[in-house]
Amino acid sequence: MRAGDTIMALSSGSLPAGVAVIRLSGPQVGTALTAIAGGIPQPRRLTLRPIGAGQRLDEGLVAFFPAPNSFTGEDCAELQVHGSPAGVRAILALLNSLGLRLAEAGEFTRRAFENGKLDLVAVEGLGDLLEAETEKQRQQALARYDGRLTEKIDLWRDTLLDLRAEIEARLDFSDEGDVSDDLPAHWFSQLDDLQISIGQALSSFEIGRIVREGIRVALAGPPNAGKSSLLNALSRSDLAIVSDEAGTTRDVREVGLDIDGQLFVLLDLAGLRDTDSKAEAEGVRRAKQAINTADIVLWLQAPDVDPLPRPETKGHFLTVGTKTDLATSQGVDIGVSTQTETGLQALREKLAVLGQDLAGGEPALVSHERDRQALQEALAALEACRSTVGDWELAAESLRGASAALERLIGRIDAERVLDRLFASFCIGK
């Protein structure tokens, strides 16, 4: 990214389309609009204009957003033109001839961050919003983008400033009689409340991760228990190969499924058994690993397959009797048949209930690994401060460490190390 350039991008997706949106941002936006649209229209009002210079290339709606009241904080514009591949190419070529260049991935959002329009937490929320596939993901991402986590962080930082002021007063004015060696009682209450608040936010990380990444559901059991058939039936697809031959599935196959607005990631696993095949043995090893880390395990039992002992798991466990069109398995939580579709809707409903339990009600704002690390660092620094009260230099340094952890989270310091990776995941034009 080169600062000072004026950038452009098609922001509306693949062509052809009914409408194409071309975005511009930078110091030459006004000059470009004058050259190709007959002048700068009234700010924040769509105006119908011919598009071209010397010859008419198209006709469309033009909007101008002057700095600093724009998405990027720079002069911005949008051209809403017909979604013709040839027309869009001609307009972009004309803009390029005027000195504008094509934007890099995420460059509009990066400029918004660098110009103080968004902090890093909101940027990540915007990225999550662009990738949201389910209603819960949309709600969670929008809450983060709207600044609800940033509001909490700002409150924590204000409390830290109050705590630091008391400590640093004892560093700076220790020889003056009006500064007591003892901290006031409310200082410890503030520290307690701050630790509790950050700890509560940190405790919601697993819920936020589950909403953002999906609930991992392992379909496990012996070979030929019907795992691939159940995966296909639940996802209404033919993604998994179904065969009577044992050991057909040798790797972990993942399929996303939206149930009541929550993302479930179904894992089709290799059947568990002893085998001389190195490839199948590796599949069994991966299956056991997936079972250990899954949020929900569906343990499949079929009437025509010898059952296996229940494995040790950390997540929720449901025993599913498959192939009920052949016979009914005993001691199962639910029976299903992929041939007659018996029990499939009931299984989806059970998954929905478990998903509500795992994902909670209100959107969790802490959902990224970076969040977890920053909050853990802040809590560790606060605990270090508590243990060093009386040694004012160490206590003050601990509080500064807590502040620095929160400031890294919102991108006030040390932001460069995450920017390139973060913005590279954005689409062009955003």
What labels describe this entry?
430 residues; alpha/beta; six-stranded mixed sheet; flat
Commentary on this structure:
This protein is α/β, with parallel strands linked by helices. Helix content is 45%, strand content 17%. The protein has a 6-stranded mixed β-sheet with strand order 3-4-5-2-1-6. It has a 6-stranded mixed β-sheet with strand order 8-9-7-10-11-12, with helices on both faces. Helix 6 (148-172) runs antiparallel to helix 7 (185-203), helix 6 packs antiparallel against helix 13 (392-410) and helix 7 packs antiparallel against helix 12. Mean pLDDT is 89; it is low at 241-248.
Q: How large a portion of the residues is in β-strands, by DSSP E?
A: 15-25%
Strand order of the largest sheet: 3-4-5-2-1-6
Mean pLDDT: 89
Largest sheet: 6 strands, mixed
Return residue spans where pLDDT drops below 50 for at least 5 consecutive residues. 241-248
Helical element count? 14
Order of helices and strands: EEHEEEHEHHHHHHEHEEHEEEHHHH
- Overall strand count: 12
Q: Nearest-angstrom radius of gyration?
A: 29 Å
Structural classification: alpha/beta
**Amino-to-carboxy terminus distance:** 14 Å
**What best-fitting shape do the alpha-carbon axes yield?**
flat
Helix content: 40-55%
